[in-house]
Amino acid sequence: MTATAHRADQVRDPQPGRDDPGGAPTTEVSWDEGFLDYDFGPGHPMSPVRLDLAMRLARELGVLDGVTTTTAPPADDRLLALVHGDDFVAEVKKAGAAPWRADGSRGVGSDDTPAFADMHAVSTRYVGATVQAAERLWRGDTLHAVNLAGGMHHSMPGSASGFCVYNDVAIAITRLLELGATRVAYVDVDVHHGDGVETAFYDDPRVLTVSVHESGVSLFPGTGFPGSSGTGAAEGSAVNVALPAGTGDAGWLRAFDAVVPPLLEDFAPQVLVTQHGADSHLEDPLAHLRLSLDAQRRSYAMLHDLAHRHAGGRWLATGGGGYEVLDVVPRAWAHLLGIALHRPIDPATPTPEGWRHYVSSRFGRTPAQRMTDGADAGFRPWSEGYDPADPVDQAVLATRTAVFPSRGLDPQL
Fold it and tell me: Annotated catalytic residue: which of 84, 120, 153, 154?
């Protein structure tokens, strides 16, 4: 690592749970046991156990000590209609009432998004939680909010897709606009392109969408290339960093640093909404990036810092993908909760004995022993120069060239 490389352990640490030492707690965590009913059945990659294990781990680490988790009413049809068509909502309701009859219409009952009992009711819990978090951020009731169950970024206005029924983040952002927001930034670090959220705002300059993902050449949904950058008045408001398969910590963090901070500084969002799919990890079975837990943790810390620098601290963080459900997702999202609550977890911390016993007894596997993969998670900043032979640098320059000029920024600097 060079002397100028950034370190994974550089996490700003205000008083735990507070930004103002004399003020009220500034982070809310959404949790509802009903979230675990979002279940596509045995063998499906998106197992609700990942949510259960993440919350259990955070509790046993003490991250949630003194934190009262919040529940929210399910989203009603009016909220769903902010993004989704009536025909699609009707199809989800019908599938939830008789899952065995779902035939894949509008993506419901397809191989990737199978129908399950009460599909509509369960999915509206995810939406309700993310929307309530957005509303409370906008009112100033809280500064940060986390909904690990949220981040269903593939769902389209008229169809389910990629394990996502209703697009809670797109609905929450639209609700912020309805409440009067004029600049909302969305940053998606899931390994897959955040296509559903981008689609919802592709012609809306009030919303900046940034997706850092594995290239669609090698991964679902096959979209998210630099040239897809918005239309009309929103040209330059959709940003896609399409990284080559095999990209690891140093390249991914360099790409993030080269694109996300300058755009957020320029856009100056009133609220930062983020999606933290953990499927960029090298052990994830569905994708081909090679990030460590330490690099993922570093990205959460960077986004937290950017929220404070450019969005007045107003930060709504959601979960997303992640299919190594025993070792990766629980540790990654426990770190996300720790950072959002201003209680960052030392990477050297052992995973709690009680949590390890629960995992081994239930799943018959010895879980990870520490809250780190032991990676350095350093990177060389873009300002130190561009390597035209490096595939990651080529991808970064393609994004900057496609987007920066329309925002008055120099792609070369």
Answer: 154
